[in-house]
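Q: Please design a sequence for this.
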């Protein structure tokens, strides 16, 4: 081969292509395992904000606010937390609802991923 042929060759070797594919598959599998928990987190944030902004919440007791959230969580199929897990405070005339929880996601064998979720209606 002359120098001209070597200069025109570019691209990945077979081994590097296999390594890239394996890495992409691992990232995709991780995304598939984590996605349901992220979707549930965003559903919780939506329900917490809707509960805090509900006009019936303004004069409601803490127990009534928790029951209101439990109704919303059953509609959105939320299983990670319940109304008892909410921290409910009042800032001025606004009700602020906060939550935090950990989710353990098994990956393979003894390897797991732990994600700490937290949020508030004030955000």
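A: Design:
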């Amino acid at each position: 081969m002359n120098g001209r042929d070597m200069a025109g060759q570019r691209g990945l070797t077979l081994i590097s292509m296999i390594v890239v594919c394996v890495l992409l598959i691992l990232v995709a599998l991780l995304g598939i395992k984590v996605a349901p928990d992220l979707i549930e987190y965003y559903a919780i944030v939506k329900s917490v904000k809707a509960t805090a902004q509900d006009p019936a919440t303004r004069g409601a007791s803490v127990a009534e606010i928790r029951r209101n959230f439990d109704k919303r969580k059953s509609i959105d199929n939320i299983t990670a937390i319940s109304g008892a897990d909410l921290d409910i405070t009042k800032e001025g005339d606004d009700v602020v609802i906060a939550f935090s929880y950990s989710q353990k996601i098994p990956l393979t064998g003894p390897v797991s991923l732990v994600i700490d979720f937290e949020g508030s209606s004030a955000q």
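Q: Thanks. Anything notable?
A: Residues 38-120 form one domain. The chain has a mean pLDDT of 89.
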